[in-house]
Design brief:
This protein is α+β, with helices and mostly antiparallel strands. It contains 13 helices and 11 strands. InterPro entries: CBASS_pafABC_assoc_protein, HTH_11, WH-like_DNA-bd_sf, WH_DNA-bd_sf, WYL_dom.
Amino acid sequence: MTKAVNMLSILWLLNTGKRMTAKQLAEELEINIRTVYRYIDALCASGVPIISDAGHNGGYSMLHEFTKAPLFFDVDEQKAMVHAASFASEAGYPFSEALNGAITKLKKYTNPEQLDYVNRHEKGFDVIQPPANSELESLLQEIEESVAEGLALLMEYQKGNESTPQSRSIDPYGLIYWKGNWYVIAYCHLRLEIRSFRVNRIVSLSRSGIEFDRPKDFSARSFFLNGLLPDLDQPEQLISIHIEGHAHALDDLCQHWLFGHALTRRSENHAHFRIDEQSINTYVPYYLLPYGRAIKILEPLFLKEKMVTVTSELVKHYQNF
């Protein structure tokens, strides 16, 4: 039997109200007596009120009736779960009610010393993200369940550049949370290909009653990232970018999701990247704009020219007010 099963077995045996020695427990479970000692220590560390009486009639027993299964987590594991719950809640996790119930249960069945430790670490830890949209919760729950059960969905989807929603039938393969937004990765029966859809653009959602098989070994995460990042398998299509700047500015730039993956060489005041031409002509200038005079583009020339165009248009825009 596994460690968890043996620990639960010890708990159930002691929860009958009987006092049992380590030898009796070892014989009952057919395990080594030294293993019993380790399991007893682990149960006590997780908050189970086990007491040990020495002497001829001694043994292990419960301090009082214990009807709930213990949470087999040490204090650092409990702290990590509370911190992780903070991240999930701020991201708009769709099962927040169940999550909060789990954290409440964790705190309820831990011992006073562990509870004090967890509370002190919780008070000093905060997560700040864009406010979660509560209206998305039911959509996210429906999508997550459909992904797990392999159920196709019908949706009305409002694209950013269209005035009216469009009906689509999708096979949802996964949910992705990226930069403050939720995306569903799905096979679109309208376009006959796998696509990503912003969940906050879904106007309505319902099940079609049709089941589907998710492609074997498909990774929604990999699909999504591959749509964002340069194609490193075709280096001949990538263009070298050389940027000089203050070290702190380059440090920050290299942490960006695009530039961090495209970095090829870095020194204190210089950074070299390889990025596709389409990205350079579209959004790269806008990512570089906030760094102002803290950085200087040395190559390619057309990126410098693009920066001039972007900044000139920005100046004209504000001069018209």
